[in-house]
Amino acid sequence: MADNGLSSSQQVNNVLIQPSNLECKNLYDYLTTRPQNVLERLYNHPTICLAVYRELPELARQYVIRILFVEQPVPQAVVASWGHQAFSKEHVYVSKVLSNLFVWQEASIPGGLPGWILSTTFKRNLKIALLGGGKPWSMSSALDPDNKARDITFLDAYSAERWECVLHYMVGSQQQEGISADAVRILLHAGLMKRDEDDGSPVITRQGFQFLLLDRQAQVWHFVLQYLDTVEQRGLDLAECLTFLFQLSFSTLGKDYSTEGMNQRLLVFLQHLREFGLVYQRKRKAGRFYPTRLALNITSSQSKGVHVLEDVPKGYIVVETNYRVYAYTDSNLQVALLGLFTDLLYRFPNVVVGILTRDSIRQALRGGITAEQIIGYLTQHAHSQMLQNESNHALPPTVVDQIKLWELERNRLVYSDGVLYSQFLSQADFNVLREYAQSSGYLIWSNKEKRTMVVNKSGHDDVKKFWKRYSKGN
Amino acid sequence: MSLELETTKSEDFVSTDEISLLVIILDTNPGQRLLRENPQTLTQCVDSIIAFGNSHLMQKSQNKLAIMACHSKTSEFIYPGASKTLDIRQIDGQYEVFTLVERTIKTNLHKIIATENTILSNESLLAGALSMALCYIHRIQRNKPPGCKLNSRILVVTGSGDSAFQYMSYMNVFFTAQKQNVVIDVCALDQHLSLLQQGCDITNGLYLKIPQLQGLLQYLLWVFLPEPPIRPKLVLPPPVKVDYRAACFCHREMVDIGYVCSVCLSIFCKFSPICTTCHTVFKMPGPLAVKSKKKKMKL
Amino acid sequence: MVDEEDAKEYRWETGYEKTWEAIKEDDEGFLEASVTDIIQRAKRKRQAQKLPNTKLGMMRHLYLLLDCSDSMSNQDLKPTRLYCTLKLLELFIEEFFDQNPISQLGVIIMQNKRADKISELTGNPRKHIKAITTLNRTSLIGEPSLQNGLNVALKSLKLLPSHASREVLVIIGSLTTCDPTDINTTIDALKVEGVRCSIIGLAAEVHICKQLAAETNGTYSVILDDSHYKDLLFQHIEPPPAAVCLDSSLIKMGFPHQMVTEGTDEPLTMCMCHVDSVEEGSKLTTGGYYCPQCCSKYCELPVECRVCGLTLVSAPHLARSYHHLFPAPSFKETDYNNQSLICYSCQKSFTDLDKHVYQCPKCERTFCIDCDIFIHDVLHTCPGCATNPAILQSNSD
């Protein structure tokens, strides 16, 4: 480079660009990171096939169901013709998803046309889930009626209490009992808490705060994923645990299931789930357990804004257009969370009044919470009265916009990686290179007088090549 | 880089995350030609409907399903059904909710068929069943928690015909469905159904007369499983041109040019001095020429 | 409105509707149940008022007489009287044509002592809505003239055939009218022609309006607030009882169908509706509706054939109006004592909370209150009767 009289310097400011945010994976993201043989093994269980099927994009589900009963490979052109021309991009995307998950594979058809065929394991087990056959799931052995059967209200209260215990621990409410060292280890592993430098006691991290603002389902899913990461260290089998988890998620609320036939490892797993409130067991050796709402539909956390038709936990927050926030709650946890981004004004036995101000929001933003998360939290817990007013906006649009503006205020600088080109020998050289960079869309900034320009990182190689060619030609 | 591209793409294609309620009306009237000739057909239809209903439930965890049987004298909900839910333990690898659907339907259907004394009429009272389905949908919509969106549709699977004597009920049902944004899909097993076809057209539903009964499940899955919001993305049977001619009240025949009572809007194919529906006496029409002209037209 | 003649006290002295007395707390001290009860009762009352088998004026010709005078800029309705009125009228027009598809509507505005027809009597809702939305920009000046407005409406209603129902709906915000001559002569003329005049007042009761309504068999009401306004306006969507002098006759109508022969493409043709319109121009298209008498093509129904004058409708257009004529039978309210475990139509299981259930007099099925309202307000078919072959058979005979 130097021989051309051109020097380039790189700026790396990755650290500055993105505050490390909480990364939420959905089932698809999780599974695509697993190797094929693991997936194949997972597909041996109808429950997992069912869960995977439900997580597929809508179009993909239609494709799968259409070829579920077809034994031969189907020509790719035929599959493509099912979708409308205008949506061909979506078709390509969907086909990719299906291939990534090894739900279908390429196969050639007699005659040499490329075709798709469903993975035989997946097909067989999805059919079993849909139509029957095969072995019963592990927890479905017959049980005598429970003489102390638990109803749904009890289970809800139980699971809420257990789960809030974990959250309470995170915000450092002094309630230390009821949480095991194991759970703490998972929180640390997930990066939701970290050891304090001084006394080694766990304190909540930025991601931890973001975690708290997620809705309950997403929290559980995120937590479980982190748990699964450590599962093999505990000597548990990942496939076994996943299968059991999905069996739970497909079980019926308020019904008891048997632990009969479960091996030792699964029983350990069950005890862990019990600790977080995903299942209820009267005694460790009770022989039966009740799944709670936390365990149900564990994967459907990604579908935002969808409420289950059945009674969902009631929202308690009212936001007015004058930025006042009223929260009908007496839970310290909920008040503490609200306090993250509101100025609390009054507190009564059953209601807290606060106000959203620029300072309070900015304080939260500085703490690493995003505007999207604040809005998400307020929407998630909006009082049913708020939902009735306007069917599409739970929150007053002015407030939503203002919160976003307050966030944008902080992001007046946009960082992008770039390479600086300077010390051009002639204005003509500079002009030619700038022209080229601009026309290919690499140019970030240029200054004619100083003969300097910045191109983005991905364009650097290309521009360099062009420069070499150009200077040789001269 | 490619990974980045993918994530942005998936944002674009987020499928409609709305809950969907499907009410299936299965015509089980033993008087219809298909069942008279071969009663076994019913079993096949019921099996297909169960598999189809379960496929609907399989799409999303929150999807709702209701199935009605339209019998010769009554129409009843056979799923979820009035009686309390059966206690089901898994016997095989089938998802227990699906097993529950299958058992409930079979038990309830069995009850209906057992109580039926056989007076065969070859026309099923589908309009009545549809109106019940609309009330049911209305209740579910009313009771849903605020802020949640629920798409509802009705699928009619029938082998019997439709005649004009339910015309008014049909029309009331269709317009109500249109107002409530309920899509009516029709799967005709045997005869062509011109009235129900109008209903599909009015409510933007799909109408399909299946060429052969053998592949019923496959037809259902292909055509009727996709929800209305994603139908534009798929290539489905094109809408058929619907005949919107009226049937006259006197002979129930299709007419091109008719006479309409200004008071009650009854349609007649010929001029008559008194309206048979509302008993209004009419003023005599103008010049005779109109009448003769009309006769010419009819020829 | 209480009639002056039979009222013994002034309006402000009459037994005020003591709504609070009807409200009772339930066991837990909540009012909600009681309030919903009142609302539902009101809904049912409106149902009960509908009498079956009354002769209705189905082919309606309605002129909307809209006050656009200075008084409409008043801000007692938000944001202004005019703006609120226009928004409601948009809804009204759509609903009007939805429920009365073979009827016609026209709009006249009264402004600065003059009356201008801003849209002619037609059956095309889009035209009216377009005309109405342009009113946003009119300057509201002067006083209205009720007489001039009525005269303009009368002039065109007079020409209609004798079987048509003639109506005028006046929306007036002003408390005065500035007329050229004696308005009573106009009222007499309206009476002779059988034009039914209804008035919705936005301010207060005015004697001349009341007299006009009383003389012509119309209704006169004054709004309380915007939701009451909407209620009053929407009451005019139901076809009114036919006027006495209304002749009945059989009207010849065409039911066009699309020209399709299996397997062949339709020929490209021009439609008659756009053939001489300057704005859009006629295009060659394939689909369309063909007049069964003269085979001219139209792209929309209902329409009057420009060539042979035949009214072209499709069967559903007529069917949309049938429910006015053949309403579902009124249900009987009975106390709940385990007649039935579930509501016949919606499958809701009755609990002790359901104090009343509703029974169809014909099929004797039991329904819950929500279904009762839904069936009579929207569906217009009793599901019990419609699933009972015997009753259906007897109905159709």
UniProtKB/TrEMBL annotation, chain A:
Gene3D superfamilies documented for this protein: 3.30.70.2610
InterPro entries: Tfb2_C (IPR040662), TFIIH_p52/Tfb2 (IPR004598)
Record domain Transcription factor Tfb2 C-terminal: where: 401-468
Organism listed in the record: Aquatica leii
Family the UniProt entry places it in: Belongs to the TFB2 family.
Principal place of residence: nucleus
Subcellular location: Nucleus
Role of this protein: Component of the general transcription and DNA repair factor IIH (TFIIH) core complex which is involved in general and transcription-coupled nucleotide excision repair (NER) of damaged DNA.
GO molecular function, one term: ATPase activator activity
Subunit (UniProt): Component of the 7-subunit TFIIH core complex composed of XPB/ERCC3, XPD/ERCC2, GTF2H1, GTF2H2, GTF2H3, GTF2H4 and GTF2H5, which is active in NER. The core complex associates with the 3-subunit CDK-activating kinase (CAK) module composed of CCNH/cyclin H, CDK7 and MNAT1 to form the 10-subunit holoenzyme (holo-TFIIH) active in transcription.
Pfam families in the record: Tfb2 (PF03849), Tfb2_C (PF18307)
Keywords: DNA damage, DNA repair, Nucleus, Transcription, Transcription regulation
GO cellular component terms, A-Z: transcription factor TFIIH core complex; transcription factor TFIIH holo complex
One GO process term, biological-process aspect: transcription by RNA polymerase II
Protein name listed in UniProt: General transcription factor IIH subunit 4
From TrEMBL, chain B:
Any Pfam family the entry gives: Tfb4
Keywords from the UniProt entry: DNA damage, DNA repair, Metal-binding, Nucleus, Transcription, Transcription regulation, Zinc, Zinc-finger
Annotated Gene Ontology cellular component terms: transcription factor TFIIH core complex; transcription factor TFIIH holo complex
Source domain of life: Eukaryota
InterPro entries per UniProt: TFIIH_Tfb4/GTF2H3 (IPR004600), vWFA_dom_sf (IPR036465)
Primary site of residence: nucleus
Gene Ontology molecular function: zinc ion binding
Biological function: Component of the general transcription and DNA repair factor IIH (TFIIH) core complex, which is involved in general and transcription-coupled nucleotide excision repair (NER) of damaged DNA and, when complexed to CAK, in RNA transcription by RNA polymerase II. In NER, TFIIH acts by opening DNA around the lesion to allow the excision of the damaged oligonucleotide and its replacement by a new DNA fragment. In transcription, TFIIH has an essential role in transcription initiation.
Compartment(s) where it occurs, according to its Swiss-Prot or TrEMBL record: Nucleus
One of the GO biological process terms: regulation of DNA-templated transcription
Name used for this protein in its record: General transcription factor IIH subunit 3
Coiled coil (UniProt feature): none
Organism: Aquatica leii
Family recorded in the similarity comment: Belongs to the TFB4 family.
Subunit structure: Part of a TFIID-containing RNA polymerase II pre-initiation complex that is composed of TBP and at least GTF2A1, GTF2A2, GTF2E1, GTF2E2, GTF2F1, GTF2H2, GTF2H3, GTF2H4, GTF2H5, GTF2B, TCEA1, ERCC2, ERCC3, TAF1, TAF2, TAF3, TAF4, TAF5, TAF6, TAF7, TAF8, TAF9, TAF10, TAF11, TAF12 and TAF13. Component of the 7-subunit TFIIH core complex composed of XPB/ERCC3, XPD/ERCC2, GTF2H1, GTF2H2, GTF2H3, GTF2H4 and GTF2H5, which is active in NER.
From TrEMBL, chain C:
Keyword Repressor: no
UniProt GO BP: DNA-templated transcription; nucleotide-excision repair; regulation of transcription by RNA polymerase II
Biological source species: Aquatica leii
GO molecular function terms noted in the UniProt entry: zinc ion binding
GO cellular component: transcription factor TFIIH core complex; transcription factor TFIIH holo complex
Identification of the protein by name: General transcription factor IIH subunit
Subcellular location field: Nucleus
Domain VWFA: 61-237
InterPro entries: C1-like_sf, Ssl1-like, TFIIH_C1-like_dom, TFIIH_SSL1/p44, VWF_A, vWFA_dom_sf, Znf_C2H2_type, Znf_RING/FYVE/PHD
Taxon lineage: Eukaryota, Metazoa, Ecdysozoa, Arthropoda, Hexapoda
